[in-house]
């Protein structure tokens, strides 16, 4: 994922009559085809964003880990 992040972009916008740039890079990702269509029309600060990228394998793995942890925390909380 670190290698993929080299292709991400910094967001830029006008703030108090000057152009500023985000200190971090971002990119849009979508998991499913129907998500891809929805995200494809997104704008940020009036600028059309690049088409979304497919989830990386690391994101799929992280999703499963986070889901498992959240479900366990919810189960413990409901007791």
Report what the structure shows.
With 79 residues, the chain is an alpha+beta fold. The protein has one domain (2-77). It is 41% helix and 30% strand. It has three helices and six strands; from the N terminus they run αβββαβββα. The chain is elongated and about 55 Å long. The mean pLDDT is 82.
List keywords for this structure.
single chain, 79 residues, alpha+beta, two-stranded parallel ribbon, AlkB-like_sf
Question: How are the SSEs placed, and which strands pair?
Answer:
Blueprint lengths: L1 H4 L3 E7 L2 E9 L2 E2 L2 H7 L3 E2 L2 E2 L4 E2 L2 H21 L2
Parallel strand pairs: 3-6
Antiparallel strand pairs: 1-2, 4-5
Strand content bin = 25-35%
Unreliable residue stretches: none
Cα separation of the termini: 37 Å
- DSSP strand tally: 6
Mean pLDDT across all amino acids: 82
- How many domains? The number is 1
Order of helices and strands: HEEEHEEEH
What percent of residues adopt helix (DSSP H or I)?
A: 40-55%
Please report the number of helical segments: 3
Structural class comes to alpha+beta
Q: How are the strands of the biggest sheet laid out side by side? A: 1-2
Largest sheet: 2 strands, antiparallel
Shape: elongated
The whole-angstrom Rg is: 17 Å
InterPro entries: AlkB-like_sf
């Amino acid at each position: 994922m670190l290698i993929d992040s080299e292709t991400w972009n910094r967001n830029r916008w006008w703030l108090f009559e000057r152009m500023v740039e985000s200190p971090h890079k971002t990119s849009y990702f979508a998991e499913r085809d129907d998500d891809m269509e929805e995200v494809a029309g997104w704008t940020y600060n009036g600028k059309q964003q690049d088409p979304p990228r497919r989830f990386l394998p690391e994101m799929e793995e992280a999703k499963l880990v986070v889901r498992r942890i959240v479900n366990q925390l919810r189960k413990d909380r409901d007791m």
